[in-house]
Amino acid sequence: MAKTAADQPKREMRVLCLGLFRTGTYSMAQALTTLGFKNVYHGLNSLGNNADWAVLDNAADATFPTLPTYRGPGKPFTRDEWDQIWGSCEAVTDVASIYGATLARAYPDAQVVLIERDYEKWSKSVNTVLTSLWGPVPNFFVGVVEPLLGSSTGLTNRKMLLGWAGVKDEKELRANLRSAWERHHEEIRAECEKTPGRLLNYRLGDGWEPLCEFLGCDVPRDEEGKPLPFPHANEAAALRRKIMDQQVIMLKNLAAKAAPWVAVSAVAGASWWWAMHKGF
Questions:
Q1: Strand 111-116's sheet: what is its strand order?
Q2: What is the domain range of residue 51?
Q3: E strands along the chain, which residues?
């Protein structure tokens, strides 16, 4: 069983890495871990963890007015509610970016790192995310497998992206992706302007120096005193493996859950065949 934040030591949120998914967030998570931040949360941590997705689902209902499930103005997601998932974390990346400015308000003492990637490169990369959520295979898992197993991972992922972009379906999401991308960065910068020095605008390839200076950390070095290479993780490959592994687990669980019904159906079918062919 996956551990929840309640099972782990309470920690103070120190860094909100609010660059969008597919902006090197997996590498940034590893970099923050190398710098000593505890329990750095990335979206890959959440796959298969239904408790986390229940929190993220409720957060979407509290954050995005365009969702039909929006719980209404004046009812923001509170810090205590966020702590259900991130109360044991000192830093968050990736999936947290969907809630950008909302998280910056919920954790006012946390420093904010905003990774910005060239839009054309980002949109090409993010297509892998969209195709993992919409299409024949994702539709089967979201519409058939997940409900049977009591999971909402795919459905909540869809809800968060649609709410973030302020659209109602995948077609609108793709059509409005650039405006949502621009609004994301504008909203976070506007929120952080309220506290001078809170925001680091970071671009892929900037390396350790600006990040360490901003966070008050020393550049990590090896035993010979040479700077360690900045992490460069293959997030796309890790995501594909994680999704495929999770889908295999879900299918195995579904097969196990359906086994008694398959056995009953087989016995009933055999009995019917025997009766029909033996003249009972």
A1: 91-92, 15-17, 111-116, 199-203
A2: 5-278
A3: 15-17, 91-92, 111-116, 199-203
Residue with tokens 């499930």: 69
Q: H or E segment at 130?
A: helix 119-133
pLDDT tens digits, one per residue of 161-213: 999 999 999 999 999 999 999 999 999 999 999 999 999 999 988 999 999 99
Domain count, the chain: 1
Looking at per-residue pLDDT, the higher value among 221 and 8 belongs to 221
Cα–Cα separations (whole angstroms), residue 7 to 89, 204, 266: 12, 34, 43
Number of CB atoms found within 10 A of residue 24's CB = 25
Instruction: State residue 154 phi and psi, 5-degree precision.
Output: -65, -45
Q: Which residues of 253-270 are buried (b: 16+ CB within 10 A; e: fewer)?
A: ebeeeeeeeeeeeeeeee
CATH of the domain at 118: 3.40.50.300
Beta bridge partners of residue 16, listed in sequence order: 92, 112
Q: pTM for the complete prediction?
A: 0.80
Tell me the angle at which helices 50-63 and 153-165 cross, rounded to the nearest 10 degrees: 20
- Name which residue leads in pLDDT, 149 or 215: 215
Q: Which helix (H) or strand (E) holds 61?
A: helix 50-63
With pLDDT > 70 as the criterion, what percentage of the chain qualifies? 79
d(CA 230, CA 228): 6
Strand partners, 113: 17, 200
Residues 177, 183, 186, 192: is their CA dihedral positive or negative?
Answer: negative
